[in-house]
Protein 1
Amino acid sequence: MENTCKELGVVIVAYSPIGQGLLADGLTPRSFPSIRVSKMLRLEYDDVLPLRRAVRRIADSHGGGGDRETTTTTTKTMAQVAINWCVAHGTIPLVGCRSARQARDTLGCIGWDLTQDEVKELDRLALSRSTLESPRWRRHLFVTLAGVVMLVCRGLDWFGWGMVKEAAI
């Protein structure tokens, strides 16, 4: 899909770049079961631990290691690494902020980049667990829902309601 989008000049919007909290600093084994995506994909905390450790180590190597609750310009968080990981792939991360602190944390993504080696490491760890391990009906449901979304987008484009001419920043 990524190659087709590039050929057509379509930029992918990365939904939930922090994995609905899976790649956030505050996640604990106790809070893990309450995350919706962990239930949907039947993930265990240990399944995401190698990726989380790598994200934490990368955040620390980019000036992190400080108080993760109060982000400064010299402290990088796991969320900032996850968002920059999406940017490194040429996507537009769709970030949700529920507080001013989260908004400030998101702004901390600007002005620095992951190295190619860091991106490759995160890719390898993230892709080490296949979504094809889920039951067949779930995969079919996902593909069907994605098809419906594409159909709606094409319909909006056909009516002239779905095209974005330019984005103001």
Protein 2
Amino acid sequence: AMALPGDLWAELPAERRIFCSVLLFSWAVYLWEAFLAHRQRRVYRTTTHVPQELGQIMDSETFEKSRLYQLDKSTFSFWSGLYSEVEGTMILLCGGIPFLWKLSGQISGRAGFGPEYEIVQSLVFLLLATLFSAVTGLPWSLYNTFVIEEKHGFNQQTLGFFFKDAIKKFVVTQCILLPVTSLLLYIIKIGGDYFFIYAWLFTLVVSLVLVTIYADYIAPLFDKFIPLPEGELKQQIETMAKSIDFPLTKVYVVEGSKRSSHSNAYFYGFFKNKRIVLFDTLLEDYSALNKEPAEGEDGENEETKSKTKNKKQGCKNEEVLAVLGHELGHWKLGHTVKNIIISQVSYYKLFF
């Protein structure tokens, strides 16, 4: 008699069933997200006129530019997502992970660390894996920055700045990731039956520390932060923060214009020490993109293109307050705390 699929599945070794389950789950998630993205892309493609609800606040030119940009981003996301899923599948099917683990053991062995130094081997494995990911992701990042972002007038980077920034990010990431991982593996190794509790508490502490020090010690390695000058905007921001009891201590402006003409705003800090950061591209008459080049200059510097011919950047004060109000709304509604709790519950279940 012909065996039923369920019988064939039951006959598979446990490790093979786990392998197939992981692969099937990965593709199921990818296909579901691709389906949702396809539905959204259809909206981008068919909605060619400003919706009635936005007619009073958005002109046709701005809407069309945004629509075409989102279409290009959607196409890019589809192909990059498909590549990522196929790459991950091939790594699993072709034994890429065991191969990399064996290679890591050979490298650590040549450095004088035998098989008993499994934490060292794990760190070498992690370094090689992140390096592989960075290299395979580089063409996609280049295309996104210098084709899509460039086409729509958002890119402000030169090729040299792009690579310098990418290398710096990789090095800083390794300086944080490798020590944290080594401590985590050591805790798991000596933790006994309750290692998952100790590992979870460790990741909780690390997460809180990183959130605390990121803006003061890590972000300044990549971008310049300066206090927002005294003036009407700062007074309005302080008034809005006070109206919702937001414990604001400082307001900074970050030089986002050296990378992109996109704009953003965010806040950080715990308890009574909250700080707000505004991208310079968000502020009218402040962004470097609005400054005319001095006589004899071509409007470009060594790191960025500073496209002074672009349409004037930035928002009016009331628009800046609207953007910031959205961000402060996350705090007022407790979204930040809720996200931390959800992520920590996920970590606990992962270790358990």
